[in-house]
Amino acid sequence: MTNDHPESPPRSGSEARPRPGSETRSRSGDGPPAPPRPGDGPPAAPRSASEPPTLTKSPFDSETFTSATFVTVGRGPDLALATVWILARAGMLLLLVRDDLGIGGVGREVGLYQYWYGQFAAGTFPPGDAMWQYPPGAGLVVMAPGLLLPWLTYFKAFVALTLLADAVVTLALARADSARLTHGAWIWVCGLPLLLHLPLARYDVQTTALAVLALLALGARPAAAHRLGGALAGIGALVKVWPALALIGTPRGRTTREAWTAAAVTALVLLAALALFFSESLGFLRQQGSRGIQIESLGGTALAVARATGAWSGGVGFRYGAFEYVGPYVSTLGHLALLFTVLAFGWLLLWRLQARRWTPATPLDAALAAVLLFTVTSRVISPQYMIWLIGLAAVCLTSRDTVMRPVALLLLPAAALSSLAYPVLYADVVDGTPVGLAVMVLRNGLLLAAALLAARRLWTSTAAPDAE
User: Fold this and answer.
1) Sign, Cα dihedral of 181, 185, 190, 191
2) How far from 240 is each of 137, 206, 385, CA to CA, in Å?
3) Nearest C-alpha neighbor of 218 from the set 65, 398, 345, 389
4) Domain assignment present for 38
5) Which range is least confidently modeled, 166-170, 286-290, 390-394?
6) What's the order of all strands across the beta sheet hosting 293-294?
């Protein structure tokens, strides 16, 4: 297949540090505490009677959920994280070598990349190729295996670079996690294998790495880091467009100016360089504009349900490298999807104008919400799109201020269902059997719920008048 909360308030200084010579009563009130032993630090401060309980409103917002429900990433569990990464990726590699799950042939996409690499070697983007639907920066990723690892076969070199990008994302997330009670690195390490071996045969891991590193750089203090984050987002936008949304939540003022300017300059310079050395650099626009309704999109699921109930008489055809629905009302539904995409973009602009409260997690949360909205309104939802969403959810969960924990949890079963849809039960999805239809309804229902929940939580945490 081709293509595509509230936490306990800090105690005051008088509560946190008892005055010298003062005695501390036991909580039970049964008598004075045992005398301190030599070398012991100051006694722990008692919980204030006015302090709210640890678990508030929802388990997703609580400190208990954050630190106890998931493995905490720090110096101790680094070895565990590395061990799980190695074992999980070894399993993914084994599945890729066999490549016989469901309809099989997941690795054939890399063969297509190799064919395009030959086109780039001749100095041109794939001319008139309906399968080439990517921005010109994608050519750099396609060329990288042959240029950087020429002693390997193209397939082995591509997989090796994908694993390298995966490892870079893991290390970056683990470093961001190290000083906090968060679990972003674990979401990435354990969430990616839910897509089976597909991530190793698509270049979306590399694209996600650019977005993840951009968001982490934007959270740093130096202005140079903001410019670096913008540059990475600009490169990502030329590779697969969506990483540009990583900048939607940058704080107003200097950070936004630095990041957005760096993104625009980097993208323009890279685009000019590619146009100078290769012909047909913008040919992808012709192919992308002609796309229909892919069977795995939300619109495709609506048509599948209508087809199963006899309300729609269309069918399935292979066009532009994917299975799409063909028949009456497909064009109308495609225009409706574009309208919803425009409305989603308008909502994001309205949110940015109305947002009044920024936390360190706001740029991360906004990026996840934006990509979710654009995913569910797209005419195409390929299974590799889940790589983007898992990566962005992992970045969100490196911050204790994030409001996207329940959204991240919804994405995990959605990723598992995506693997059932492709490649395991893809024949059922194409044929519209009850099993295939059920998988798609559940997967797309989870994605729609995650998008709406992400938008609601982003708005209420930053723009709603009654938000705290």
Assistant:
1) positive
2) 8, 10, 11
3) 398
4) no
5) 286-290
6) 293-294, 322-326, 315-319
Domain-located, residue 373 = yes
Paired strand residues for 124 = 279
The model's pTM = 0.82
Residue 383 placed within a domain: yes
CA distance 183 to 177: 7
Q: Which domain holds residue 99?
A: 78-462
Show the CA angle centred on residue 111, arms to residues 117 and 154, nearest 5°.
60
Here the tokens at position 332 are 């109308």
- Span 411-450, pLDDT tens digits: 999 999 999 999 999 999 999 999 999 999 999 999 999 9
pLDDT at 36 over 90: no
Amino acid residing at 98? R
385-396 and 362-376 are packed helices; what angle lies between their axes, rounded to 10 degrees? 160
Contacts of 272 (CB under 8 A, 6+ apart): none
Token output for 184: 């972003």
Its sign, for the CA torsion 402, 407, 413, 415, is negative
In total, how many domains does the chain have?
A: 1
d(CA 33, CA 27): 9
Joined tokens for residue 99:
């490549």
Distances (CA, A) of 376 to 181, 362, 406, 445: 31, 21, 18, 10
In a domain, 10, yes or no: no
pLDDT tens digits for range 341-388 = 999 999 999 999 999 999 999 999 999 999 999 999 999 999 999 999
